[in-house]
Every structure is written in structure tokens, then in C-alpha cells.
Amino acid sequence: MSVSIIVPVLNEAPLLRSFLAHLRERATGAEIVVADGGSSDGTAELVRDSCDQLVVSERNRAIQMNTGARTAHGDTLWFVHVDAEVPWGCLAEIERILDDPKVAGGFFRIRLPQDRVYRLTDSFAHYAGLLLQMRCGDHGIFCRRTAFLDLGGFPEVPLMEDVEFFRRLRRHGRVVSSRKRLLASPRRYETIGPVRLTLAYGLIAMLYFFGVPLSKLASIYERTCCKRHPGLSA
């Protein structure tokens, strides 16, 4: 099995070099594709020699990931955020899950730092995801290339493109949760506030579930989740 890791970025120069080194160490042999949304902080120059491919598109996470996926060579596509820490043995775990031909893809359960508030947030997100049959890009969604192509990639919408893709993937075949955990960065929670952000995410997820238009959800997201840190809205 060959795996291509697609990393969407926007103005993430401070994190990128160490993150790519981290991927090289823990996902040895995978192709790394950085999908830049037009960064203005020198991202392109910084990573050109640290990844296998650098692609540039307009600023939109779905468009960036689709552009990266189209240029990737792997028969498995894994979409990972730049502020994540992938587990040891991640490629073997993906291979184990996709060994079943009925499985279209999978994801990792996230783990936040061991703070009481973050543990509550982590548990809330996990069980709400089970109830609403939703997973976001923080979970490191992966899938077969054939499934990705059959689904037409990520819908190029202003918000929830990862959730939309995940739900379509579930209708295409089984989607399996990994036994391993992906460590997610708390930086957004530290910037916005853990209680405020958890409630905002919960509200957006519930409104999405009940069919509120994505344009309205994008407006709520911009007002509640994207303040004070320009890189977080990538």
C-alpha cells in the first residue's frame, strides 16, 4: 500500500518545518504533499525542499485538499492538519484497517492534552460525533483513492467540507475508527477559550445536523471561532 499525506496550509511557516520532519519520522515512506492556499509568510520557499510535492491553489481548505489529492500518487490518501501529532505505527494502522476490501476509509480519534477541560471537550466531541455521525478534519481522515475519486473529492463549500465528505464516504463503504489516537493541538482552544469554542462547535454541529445552510454556519464560525489568530482560519 502506498500512502500520500495531504497537508492543507495557510501561513503556517512557524510550524511547517518541524511538522514535516515529524511526518518523515513517523510515516516513513509516505509521500507528503503540502497544499498551500496562497500563504504570504514564505511557506512555499520554506517547504519546497522538505516535502515531495508543493501545490498552490486559492484559499479554501476543500480546494487545497482536492488539488493536493489530484497530484498525489498514493493509492491511499490521508488528510492531516499541520498542528497534529500522528501516532507511531500510523501507516501500519491504516494498512490494517484498509486490508478489509469493504472498508472505504477511516479516521483517528483525537486526543487533547491531559487537562480536565480538554478531556471533557475530547469526550464531548467523540460521543457527539458518534451520535451525529460526523467527523472533522482534525481526526486525520483517510480513504482509498478510488473512493475519493468516486465521491468527487471534498465538496468545495465554505465550511464543513470534511464532515460532508465523511458522511458521503460512509455511504460508499465502511468507515473505521482507529485504535490509535492522533494528538490535536489545543492552540485554537487557547486562543478562543476552551468553553467558548466547545460550545460554538457544538452549536454549529447541531445546526448542521438540522439542515441550516452552510453559508449561515460559515458566518457563525467566522464570528465565534476565527478571532485573533489568522492561521487558524486556513
Q: Please, could you describe this protein's structure?
A:
With 234 residues, the chain is α/β, with parallel strands linked by helices. It has ten helices and seven strands. α5 packs parallel to α9 and α9 (194-209) packs antiparallel against α10.
Q: Quick summary of this structure?
A:
Helix content is 47%, strand content 18%. With 234 residues, it is of the alpha/beta class.
Outline the secondary-structure elements:
Blueprint: E1 3-9, H1 13-26, E2 31-36, H2 43-47, E3 53-56, H3 61-71, E4 76-79, H4 90-98, E5 103-111, H5 116-132, E6 142-144, H6 145-151, H7 161-172, E7 174-183, H8 187-192, H9 194-209, H10 214-225
Parallel strand pairs: 1-2, 1-4, 2-3, 5-7
Antiparallel strand pairs: 4-6, 5-6
Helix pairs in contact: 5-9, 9-10
